[in-house]
């Protein structure tokens, strides 16, 4: 049976919703049945023992089991491990187990190993809030490994080629005895390719890639926020020996703004108003990032800390429609410099106060009096 047709749950004889105790019990029974010590010289029993071990290695671990349930055997392929993989999963410890049993990894078909794609790269890009609002095209410079021009990424000196590896004889793998088991691993001489260079390229020393400064154009879409990730496919590290390159991920960081604070698609700002405007009402005008002026009506009698919203005057929705809101927090400012005339008018006002003008203050002092009487 091909490796891609073997189901780990069927191997252990359990259902897909079996708990950990059931899986462990089933594995112990099968391991005891097929153990090489109980079946000396029985190659089939030894192979079944290895397969049971591989199945249990995955299903006993919640993280690996979840990846297997979702992706099947593809969760453990060489491409999944070396090319970005599945989020949060680390299956590097399973490679030797699967290669030992199936001779080359799930879905790979055995034989020589294929060169892995190049590594993914990260670049941190800072933009201001205006750029995050409007979006922009910008250029970045990244030092990255690219395919060697001299050898076209092959790693071989021009005019030369490759020859069969004299250690693995072209198989790409070597075997070693470890206790009861024969372990098959990628050949360290040819790195699993089965071939070695006749003469390494003088520029890249056989790597097939060289470090080079690259200038790349990046499109920043409107509405980006801290942590927004932009993927440039094929702009990562070049793969060895002509393998495909990885990807470049741009992580956006939005600089703090002097006026606005951001929360998702909403913008916040604090606006001080005079105590007369707070008492009588009025209007404030706030220039927006879009170039338009947002007019905020101040209702009479507003208190400090009150928030007013201007719908649709916030940040654009990333890759969507519409905008968030502009939230204005009012701060009532007490005057610190008064003319003689202003002081006189305030005293006249004070003489006419009855306490009903500020019900919150009056209520507080009444509660205070009751508490201590």
TrEMBL record:
SMART domains: DnaJ
Sequence positions that bind Zn(2+) 2: 165, 168, 187, 190
A GO MF label: heat shock protein binding
Subcellular locations according to the entry: Cytoplasm
Annotated ranges, domain CR-type: 135-213
GO cellular component: cytoplasm
Cofactor(s) it depends on: Zn(2+)
Residue ranges of domain J in the record: 7-72
Positions with a binding annotation for Zn(2+) 1: 148, 151, 201, 204
Positions annotated as zinc finger (CR-type): 135-213
Chief subcellular location: cytoplasm
Record carries keyword Metal-binding: yes
Free-text note on domains in this protein's UniProt record: The J domain is necessary and sufficient to stimulate DnaK ATPase activity. Zinc center 1 plays an important role in the autonomous, DnaK-independent chaperone activity of DnaJ. Zinc center 2 is essential for interaction with DnaK and for DnaJ activity.
NCBIfam families referenced in this protein's UniProt entry, alphabetically: DnaJ_bact (TIGR02349), PRK10767.1 (NF008035)
Subunit and interaction comment: Homodimer.
Sequence similarity: Belongs to the DnaJ family.
Function recorded in the entry: Participates actively in the response to hyperosmotic and heat shock by preventing the aggregation of stress-denatured proteins and by disaggregating proteins, also in an autonomous, DnaK-independent fashion. Unfolded proteins bind initially to DnaJ; upon interaction with the DnaJ-bound protein, DnaK hydrolyzes its bound ATP, resulting in the formation of a stable complex. GrpE releases ADP from DnaK; ATP binding to DnaK triggers the release of the substrate protein, thus completing the reaction cycle.
Name of the featured protein: Chaperone protein DnaJ
Organism per entry: Paraurantiacibacter namhicola
Gene: dnaJ_2
């Amino acid at each position: 049976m091909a490796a891609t047709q073997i189901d780990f749950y069927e191997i252990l004889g359990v259902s897909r919703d079996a708990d950990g105790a059931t899986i462990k019990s089933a594995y112990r029974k099968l391991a005891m049945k097929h153990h090489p010590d109980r079946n000396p010289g029985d190659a089939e029993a030894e192979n079944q023992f290895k397969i049971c071990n591989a199945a249990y290695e995955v299903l006993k671990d919640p993280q690996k089991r979840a990846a297997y349930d979702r992706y099947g055997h593809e969760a453990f392929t060489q491409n999944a491990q070396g090319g970005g993989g599945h989020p949060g999963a680390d299956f590097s410890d399973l490679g030797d187990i699967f290669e030992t049993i199936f001779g080359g990894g799930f879905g790979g078909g055995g034989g020589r190993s294929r060169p892995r794609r190049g590594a993914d790269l990260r670049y941190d890009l800072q933009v201001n809030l205006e750029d995050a609002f409007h979006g922009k095209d910008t250029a970045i410079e990244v030092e990255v490994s690219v395919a060697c021009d001299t050898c076209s990424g092959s790693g071989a000196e021009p005019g030369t080629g490759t020859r069969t590896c004299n250690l693995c004889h072209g198989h790409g793998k070597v075997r070693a005895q470890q206790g009861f088991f024969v372990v098959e691993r990628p050949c360290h001489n040819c790195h699993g390719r089965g071939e070695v260079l006749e003469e390494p390229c003088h520029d890249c020393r056989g790597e097939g890639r060289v470090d080079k400064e690259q200038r790349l154009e990046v499109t920043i879409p409107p509405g980006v926020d801290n942590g927004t990730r932009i993927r440039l496919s094929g702009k990562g590290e070049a793969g060895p020996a002509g393998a495909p390159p990885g990807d470049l991920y741009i992580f956006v960081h939005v600089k703090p703004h002097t006026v606005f604070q951001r929360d998702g698609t909403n913008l916040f700002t604090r606006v001080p108003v005079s105590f007369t405007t707070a008492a009588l009402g009025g209007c404030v005008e706030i220039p927006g990032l879009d170039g338009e002026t947002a007019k905020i009506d101040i209702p009479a009698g507003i208190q400090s800390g009150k928030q007013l919203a201007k719908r649709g005057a916030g940040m654009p929705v990333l890759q969507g429609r519409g905008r968030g809101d502009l939230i204005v927090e009012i701060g009532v400012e007490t005057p610190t410099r008064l003319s003689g005339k202003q002081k006189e008018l305030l005293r006249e006002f004070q003489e006419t106060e009855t306490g009903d003008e500020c019900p919150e203050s009056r209520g507080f002092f009444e509660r205070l009096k009751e508490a201590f009487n």
